[in-house]
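Let's practice the habit of predicting before peeking. Look at the sequence and jot down your guess about where helices and strands might fall. Then scroll down.
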Amino acid sequence: MKLRLLFIAVFLEVLSCLNAQQFENRYVSEVFTNISETTNVRFSTNVPAPKPGGGFYETFTGYPINVQEYDSILVNLNMNIFQPTGDTLSIRPVVIICFGGGFVAGSKDHWSIRLLAQSLAKRGFVTAVIDYRLGMNIFNKELSKRAVYRGVQDGRSAVRFFKADAAGANIYKIDSSQIYIGGHSAGAFVATHNAYLDTEAKRPLSTISATQSCGFFCTRTCYNQRCLDCVGDNKSFNGKAKAVFSLAGAIGDTLYMESTSNRVLSMFHSTDDATVPFNKGVPFSSISSLVIGFDLPEVFGSNLMHTRATNLSLVDTFKAYTNRGHDVHEMSATELHNDIVPTIAHWFNQHLLKPPLHTISGKKNICKSALTSTYTTQSNLAALYKWEVTGGAMAMSATPANVINIVWDTTATLHKIKLTPYSKWESAGDSTVLDIQIADQFNNTWTQTSGNWHDQSAWLLNQVPESCHNVVFPDKSIPTNILHSNSLSEIKSLTTGQNTIITLSGGSQIRVKNNGN
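Done guessing? Here is the structure:
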C-alpha cells in the first residue's frame, strides 16, 4: 500500500514537470478549438509608398501598375494577430503570412490568407496577416524590382515588430528565435526574398539609383529605397525570419541562395501556374501580349529553387502539382486543400521545434534479487520529459526529470519504459521504448578480445555481470586478457574457455555462487 501511494505521488510530480501539458500533438494537429484575433496592430509607420502614375492601363484596371517611383506618400502598415485561446505556453513560435496580388492588389483580409492563419493558430502557432505597400511599374523591368523590394522591407518590419515585442513587454509571448514568414504569389516573393536577398550586395541596382520617364523629354530621379531594415519601425532589430513557406512563389535569382543562408524552406507550386512560372520565366506571361509595353524581369520558380537548395544541401521540402493552377492552396472559394497547412506545420515542427530522439540508459535485464533500477536520458536536449512505466512503479523523480528510479513488479507479465521528450515550445519528440526482461538468471558472454571486466560494452547483455548472471568466456585462439580491478563482483556461475586470463588487481574479488543457490 505504501509503495502504491508513493508511486501515485511521484507520478503526479513527474506530470507537474510537464508544465500541465495538455496536448500531445501541438503543431501536428488542431489542438485548440478557439482562437482570438487582435486587429489592425500597427507595425510600421510613415513608410514611403509610390503614387499612382495614371494613364490608360491604370484607369482601365484600377490597379497601381504605372506608379511614380520618383514620388511617394507616407503610409502606415497594420497586421492582424491570431492566438490560440487558453494557451498557457509563455514562449511560442509565430508565423507571418503575406497575401498575393502581384504587388498591385490584394489584402491581409483575403479569405484564404486568414484561413491559413487561423488553421495554424489552432495548431499552437501565433500567426499574423500583414499589410505591405502596393504599387508597381510593369512597363520597366528594373523599376518593377522596386515593388518587390518594398514588400521585402515590409515583411522584415513585421519580423522586427515581434522581436521588439519579445525584447520588451512580450505581449504576444513570442520566442524571437522562432519567427517564420510565408505567403502566396507576391506574398511568397516577400517570404523567399526575406530568406535569401539578405545583404546590400544582393540589392537590385534600381533600388539604389534609377531614373523614370515623366513625359516627353522628361526624366526624374527615383529615391533610394535604403537598406533592408532602414524603413519602418524597430530598426535596431534584424528583420530576417528563421524559416519560410512559399505558395506559388519565386525568387529574382537562385544565386541569392547560398550555403550560408540555411533557411528552412517549404514550397508548393503547380506546373500549370500561368501567373508565376514553375521553372523560369516572366510573371503574368499569359497576359503580357495584351499589354503594350509590358516589361517584367525573369524570375526563378519553386522547381529551380528546389534544385538549387538540393545542390547546396539547404533544408527544403517541395510539393509539386499538375492541376492546381496559381492558387495552389485554394481547393474551392471557401476551403483550403487539406495538405497545405499540415505540411507547413509539420515542416516547421520537424526541423525547428521538435526535440531530437532521446536514448534511455539503464539495465534491460533485471535480476529478481535486485528489482530497483535507475534510468537516465540526455539532460540538455529537451525541456520536459514524460516517463511511462509498464509493470513497475516510479519510486523517485529527479530535477530535472531526466532521471527516474523504478521498482519492478515481478507478477506483471510485461515490463517496459516509454520516454517522450518535449521542447520548450511543447513540441513532442518521438518516443523511445525500452523493453525489460526480469528473470532468476541470464547468460552474459564476453564478446571482445582483451579488455576491462567493467566495460559494459564488452558484454553480450551490454551490462557488467551481476549476481544472477552466468558469465561465459568462450574459447579463443589467442590469449584473452581481462582486467578486474578495485572492486567486488558477485556472479551466479563462471565458465572460462581456452586462453582466458583474468587478472585481479587492487584487492578486487570475483565471487561465484554455487549453482542453484
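How did you do? The CA atoms of residues 383 and 493 lie 44 Å apart.
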